[in-house]
What does this fold into?
Amino acid sequence: MGRRLRKTKSIAKAKIKGVVSVPFKSKVSEQGNEKIFKVAFNNAVDAGFWADTKTGKIINCNKAAERLLERKRKDIIGMHQTKLHPPYAKEHYRKIFREHVKSKNVFDREVEILTKSGKIKYVRITAAVIPIGNKSVIQGIFHDITEQKKIREELIRSEEKYKSLVANAPIGIYYNDFNGKFLYANKMAEKIVGYKSKELVGKSFFKAKLISPKDLNRAAELLALNKLGKGTGPDEFILNKKDGSKADVLITTRPVIIEEKRLVLGMVEDITERKLAEEALRQSEEKLRSLVDSAPNFIMIINADGIIQFINRTAPGLTREEAIGRPIYDFIQPKYHAVVRNTINYIFKTGKASSYEIQGVGPDGRISWYVTNVAPIKHHGKVIAVTQIAADITERKKAEEELKNNERFLQSVFDGIQDGISVLDIKLNVVRVNKWVEKMFASHTPLVGKKCYEAYHKRQTVCPWCPSVKAVKDGKTHAGVIPYAVEEKLKGWFFLSAYPLKDENGKVIGVIESVRDITEQKKAEEALRESEERYRLTIDSIADAIHVIDSELRIILINKAFLRWCEQLGISKKVIGKRVLEAFPFLPSKIEDECREVFSSGKPLITEEVNNINGIEIITETRKIPVFEAGKVIRVVTVIRDITERRHMERLRENLIRDVSHSLKTPVAMLEMANDIGQRGIETNDTQRIKKAMDLASKNVIRLRKDINNILEVYVLSKAIGARPKEKSSLRKVINEIAENIKYVIEEKGLSFEINIDSRTDKILIIERELYTLLLNIIDNAVKFTNEGEILLSTKLKNNCIQIKVEDTGCGLTPFQRDMVFERFYKRSSAMPGMGLGLNISKEIVEKYGGKIEIFSKGLGKGVTVIIELPRK
Amino acid sequence: MKRILIVEDEKSMHEVYQDIFLEEEGQYHLFFAFSVEEALNILSKEAIDLIVLDIIMEPIPGQYLYLKLMQDEDLKQRKIPVIIASVLKKDMFERLENVGEVCVFEKPLAREPFLKKVGELTGAGTK
It folds into this structure.
C-alpha cells in the first residue's frame, strides 16, 4: 500500500489528462478555444478555481466547484482563497499560496476544504500560475478525494487492527515459506518458544532447533502438505524453548497468499498447563480409583432407573463387567426392593443423601447385613445419578442383637426383683421403673417422666430426707428409712437405698433407687419399742448393765445400771444409736462378730472379758441373748455383769486355801521335823541336837497357836459380835504377855522391842482376849516385816482416847499395800507366815469399840507406824 | 564331795537340812541361799550338783528359779537336778503345770527317802 501511495503523482497526472486537457500553447483560435475551454471548464468533473495571484481572491470557478463547496458560483467568486479552507489552517494556506505564486511551480498537494455546511472535504489540488491577459492568475483543479481518503484511512485502520490482532493474539502466529524459513512471529509465539521474533525471522525451523530431531520428519511431512495447498493440524509437538525447557504445543497450519507470495500461516497453542492439569487429573483419578477398588465397601453408581453404572467389587461368580448395566434390584432380595427404590427415588427427588440397611451377599459369598449410604451426584444442580456405599455391619448387628438379648435379660432381672427399683435422671425425673414399682404405685401412673416426689409422694417439692438427692450430690451410695406419704399423709415406711449412676467418666448422670416396703417391719419394731419401754422399769431395776442392739449392731436401749457403769468408768453415756465398738472402743473387735453370730445362729452366747478401762482392770461376764420376732432374731440383749469382785474373791479363796495350808502345815511340818531331830539327838545322845529340836518346836508352837487363835477370833467375832466387856483390862499386862511370847523371834532376828506405856492408859474397857489379839497382830506384823532395828510401842491419852502407837524400822508399805492391809485374807506375799487375817481382825475389834486404826508408811524400806485409838470408856 | 544348793527362806529349815545331812558327813557340801537371788549368785560362782528348792518364798517364788534352770541357755546346759521341797502338794504350785516330771518332796521331809533321792540324783549313793 505504501508503495502505491508513493505513486500518487503519476496517477493524478493521468486523471487530469483524461478530464481536462489544458494545452498552454494551443494552435486553435483563441475565440473558439476559449469557448471550448469554458464549456470544458464548466463541465469538468473536478472543481476548478481561478484566483488573482495578487489579491488571492477567486475570480472564477466551475460547476464542480459549486458542488464541492455547496455554494453558488456568484458566492464563490470574490471569496478569498483562504476561505476555502478550515479557519484553523487559514494562515498555513495563505503561506503556501504566496510561496506558490512566487515560485510559479506546478502545485500538487492534498488540502482540506471547508464546505458551506461546515463539512471538511479532502481534495488534491493541481495548480499552476498562468497569465490571463495582463493578469497573473492561479488556476487550481480540485479533485475531490474525500471518499478515496476515507477508504484509504479505513484500509489503514483495518490493516493496523489486524496487525495488532495478530501481534497480540492469545495464540502464537507465525509465517514461514515453503522452505520452513520464518518470516514473522507474533508476541505469543515469541512467548511460547522464548525467542524474540528477530531471532527467528530468516531462520528455517529445521535449523532453529525448535523441534526435536525425532519430530523433524513429521514437520517436513506437514510442510510438504502445505506445498500441496493443504492445511494441517492440529498436531501435538514438543518444542525446545530458548531456556532449555519444553513446551507442549498444538500446531495448526494453513497455506496462504500474502502480498502475492505463497506462504504458510502457522498457529501454535501452548498446552503445557493443560497437559499438566490432565496429568494431575489422571493421577488423582487413579488414586481415587485405587481407593475405590481397595475399599472394603461396595461402591456403586446407580442412575435414575436403578441401573448400575459403576461398581468397585461384586459378589462371587459375578464380574464387574457383568454387573455394570444391570439393575441393582437383580442383586437385592425382593423383600428389600421397596426400601432401595424408595431411597433412590427420594434422593432423585430431593437431592438429599439418605441410607438404608438391608441384607445382601457379600464378596465372600456370605449373607451379611449392610448399611448403605446413598448420596446424589449432581450436574448443574440436577441429580443425574446416586452413589451407593455399602458397609458390612453384620458384626454391629450381631452386637446389637446381643445387646437386645442382654437388655431383655436385664429387663427380666429388673422386673423380677422383689424390691422396687426406679431409675432417676440427675433432675430426679423417673426414667424407668420395674414391675414392683408399677404395681405398688398403680394408681399413680404414669410414673415415667414425672419427678420422683410427684410420682411417688404427690409432693411439689423434694423430700428433705431423700437419700437420692445426697447420692446425686456426692456420687456416693446413701440409704435410709423414709416415710412413704401421699399428699403428706403417712402410708408407710420404705427402706430406700440410692446408688449413683455414673457415666464412663465417673460423672453422676442419675440415680438408682432401691425401695423396700418396711411398713410391717416398722410396725413390729414400734410394737417392740413400746414393749421395750414397758419393760424399761424392770430392766432399769436390774443390777446388771444391759444394752439392746438391733441388727445393724446399733445400741437402741440401755438400762440405768449401764448408765451408772458408764459413769463410774468415765465412758460417754451417749451410746444410743452408736455401734457397739463405737460406744466401747476398749472392747476387742471380735465383739461385733459375736453379735452377728447371735443374730445368725439364734443361740445365746456367754463370754468373759478382761477389759482395761482407763487403766482399771475390769472382768466382765457378757451374756448375749437373742430376741426373736417371727422366727428371726431382731435384737440382741446384752447383759454385762461386773465380775471383777467375784473373780477377785475366787482368786483370794484359792490363795486362802493355799496360804492356810501353808501357814498351818509349815509349823506342823517343822514340829514333826523338830521331833525327828530330837529323836535322833536322844538316840545319839547329842544334847546339841536335842536343844536345837526344842528351839524349833517352841518357835513353831507359838506360830501355830497364833494362827489358830486368829482363825478362832474370826469365828468368834463373826458369831459373837455385840458381846460387851464386863470389866476393864490391863494394857500393860496384855503387852507383857505378848512380849514374852515373841521373845524368841525378837532375839533370833536381833531386834529390840521397846515398850513405853503411859500409866493413865493402863486400864481400858475391853475384853482382854480381844485386846490381846488386836495388839498381837499389830506387833507380830511389825516383827515379821522388820529384819533389823527396833519396834517401839508407846501409849498416851489423847482427847479422852487411849492412843497406842506401834512403830517399826521394817520394810515399809507401798500406798497400794497400805490400802489393802485391812482386807481380810490380804497378804503381801503368800510366802509370809500367817493367813492375811491379822490386821482385818484387829480392825474389826477396834471398830467394835468405836475406835479407829490407821496405818502409815513413808514407802518401801521406810518402816510402818500403826496408830490405834480406843475410847477410854 | 557332791555340792548341794539349798534354797530356803526359813532359817529354821536350814537347821533342819543341816541335821538331815549330819549323818552323811564327808559326802555333801551344803550351800544355803535365803532367796532366789542369792541362789543365782551362788550358781554363778559354784559348781552345783543338786538344788533343793522351796517354792513359797519372798520376794521371788521358787518356781522362777526352776523355770530359769530350764530355760536359761547357760543353766540349761549344766543340767542340774532339782528336788522341790514344799509343804504344798505339786498341784498347788502355780506355773509349774507344764514343765513335765518334777521331783517333789513334801514337808515334813522324810529323812530316808529324801537322802536316797539326793544320792540318786548326785550319783553319790547312800550308805
